[in-house]
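Format notes (please read before filing issues)

Several people have asked whether sequences and structure tokens are stored in separate files. They are not. Every record keeps both together, in the order shown below: the sequence lines, then the token lines. Line labels are part of the format and must not be stripped during preprocessing.
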Amino acid sequence: MSRPAHFPAVRELAASMASGECTSVQLVEDCLARVRDVDPGVGAFLSVDAEKALEAARASDERRARGAVLGPFDGIPVGMKDVIAVKGEPLTCASRMLENFTVPYDAHVTERLRAGGLIPFGRLNMDEFAMGSSTENSALGTTRNPVSADHTPGGSSGGSAAAVAARMVPWALGSDTGGSIRQPASFCGIVGLKPTYGRVSRYGLVAYASSLDQIGPMANSVEDAACLLDAIAGPDERDSTSWREAPPAFAEAAARGPERPLRVGLPKEYFGKGLGAEVEAAVRGAVDTLAAQGCEVSEISLPHTEYAVPVYYIIATAEASSNLARYDGVRYGHRAKEAADGIDLYFRSRGEGFGSEVKRRIILGTYVLSSGYYDAYYLRAQKVRTRIREDFVKAFESVDVLLTPTAPTPPFRRGEKTGDPLSMYLADIYTISANLAGLPCMSVPCGLTEAGLPVGLQLIAPHFAETTLLQAARLYEGSRLS
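Then the structure lines:
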């Protein structure tokens, strides 16, 4: 499958609208046409409210005609992963449990988009309740990789990555609990950024694992991702974990570049057994590119990396078990048509509404929280999580950013891992640690395999050092594309 023509950078789109070369209505109509033409072969969108998007575009054009634009990107559409609340639109989390649910409020990020004149556009497919690495766990449809229809787009934000990669939208929002922005970005050959935990409010994000979840941008360039991060980042009193300080101007800082040569660390644990040869070659090539730009490259160690996957699948499933208990067949969501009593209603509704992967994680999470096992599993996992975080703190004493592969392999074939959950979980082996530590990180395209499949490199920075992260990514992107 070949990609449609590339969208211009968002600044070029904004400049075209400012000069009168195009209008927001024309841009939205172009996106709608691309969805009609391209999405039947990709399956990125679960739904698009065309009239609502066009209404917002007409309002944007009217503001521009009055000289009253709300921001630099007023009138540009943003694809929305179907785990983020957009008032009056479906919020299904790609699950039968919420198949007919319409959300009555906006998420904080949606409010910020609207405040800047950006247009929430469509509902993008995902793994059910963000639980998966291939978007094959969606109960509402399958998403294909726009680069190769035989391969998965990654997950859980596979719909967001595919929509951007297939040029159906200029950019999109995803969510990342253990790699769900970065891994699909790598698989689809785009940029994906997970901010520091707390940098972007989680209000209006359907919770999977509350201590890990973060919303972030997915785009065709580092600059575009920085611009979208500017649009959504900021404090929110409704999220108790939201960072209270106003964020810096990320796009402006990224454009300035680093003030001195960056110190880049290569965690030796990320370049060992299990890493595909073509992925390693592409990432090593990226290291050489940065070294040629004056970066100081050194090997470092994150010794507790080997525990990241088991720690993640204890903590994340425990939190999922708690968060998903609210879907009881009574207040909202799927309700079984027949039940003998209240308990039977609860069991039937959840049994019918949840898919197999969600059930698997609820069972595992309930087990590790149960009496007699809490200390042995959940409490111990939290202690090891602290050790993982301490590894990063120590590493950043000597380096500015870490550089690793985003995923151990290129995109895998559809159906290749669906019968082996452990193999699927290991697809996130390089992304999970940053979530456990709450660090900002991003995936940037760094080449193709011989078969033409994308490879991504991952950059990780200290807490709230998104500017350094973006400067490193921009430095590499600019060097690679020049």
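For reference, the curators noted about this record: Residues 10-256 form a domain with the Amidase signature (AS) enzymes fold (CATH 3.90.1300.10). The longest strand covers residues 441-448.
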